[in-house]
Amino acid sequence: MRMPVRFRFGFLLAVLFLLFGVPSFVDFWADWLWFGEVGYQPLFLRILSLQAVLGGSDSSSSRACSRRTCSSRSGGSPPSSWW
Questions:
Q1: Phi-psi region of 4 (alpha: psi -120 to 50; beta: other; left: phi over 0)
Q2: DSSP characters for 31-63?
């Protein structure tokens, strides 16, 4: 007997959450408690907000830049010395 599609999808989401969500939350919580213990929670919040703002723009600009660099050299492929 096969499992219903909804059950498989829900099971997959639960496994992905356990693999990626829980460790990230534990890491965040440990940092939050440590910064609170030393009295720097406002600094931690500022770090998080800057990472959120700059992280998205940084990754998108570096992807575009690397595409431009790779396409301008040696006919569209990266040099073999990079790998």
A1: beta
A2: HHHHHHHTT-HHHHHHHHHHHHHHHHHHHHHHH
The tens digit of pLDDT for each residue in 5-23 reads 778 888 999 999 899 888 8
CA torsion 51→56→58→61, rounded to 10°? Answer: -170
User: What is the token pair recorded at 9?
Assistant: 């999808």
Half-sphere exposure of 66 (CA within 13 A, CB side): 9
**Taking the complete model, does pTM exceed 0.70, yes or no?**
no
**Residues recorded for the chain:** 83
pLDDT of residue 41: 94
Summary count for the chain: helices (H), strands (E): 3, 0
The pair of structure tokens assigned to 28 is 């965040």
- Characterise 11 by phi-psi region: left (phi > 0), alpha (psi -120 to 50), beta (else): alpha
